Protein: ATP-dependent protease subunit HslV
Organism: Pseudothermotoga thermarum DSM 5069
Amino acid sequence: MQWHGTTILVVSRNGKTVMAGDGQVTYGNIVLKHGAKKVRKIADGQVLAGFAGSVADAMALFDRFEAKLREWGGNLTKAAVELAKDWRMDRVLRRLEAMLIVADRNNVFIISGTGEVIQPDDNVAAIGSGAPYALAAARALLRNTDLDARTIVEKSMEIASEMCIYTNKNIIIEEL
């Protein structure tokens, strides 16, 4: 059996950055948990971070990312690049199975263990099983409405939960 999960979405619009994650944890075809918290504020509430993948691996990565933020004086871009370099090159870290999204008021990054640091063109990003659904909904709402970032995230996550069997409606939202 295989672990599945989650949907993490971040939208930055008009000076607000909002990140959401659903609460479902699935093993094979069994839902084990409905209310897992996969998004949080870090760096004294100045950065949002969300993960898809192994919880233990993600917690280790959050700790390392926060250390990189401190090391680079809060520079999100530099911290993201340095974490990705370490993650790819370190023999132990390379085995971690997770993806991260980090964001502040100005930047959004997806960070992976293959050394990727992706900054989307439109400050909208998603990871996890339901990412394609949430991302498509968010982009459509951004392009065709004047909705605020929080409303776009709420509506997009609802749409993802209706389409992805590994995403539920127990949405946790963090906002900057």
Q: What stands out?
A: The first helix runs from residue 55 to 71. The domain at 3-164 is CATH 3.60.20.10 (Glutamine Phosphoribosylpyrophosphate, subunit 1, domain 1). The first strand starts at residue 3 and ends at 4. The chain has a mean pLDDT of 89.
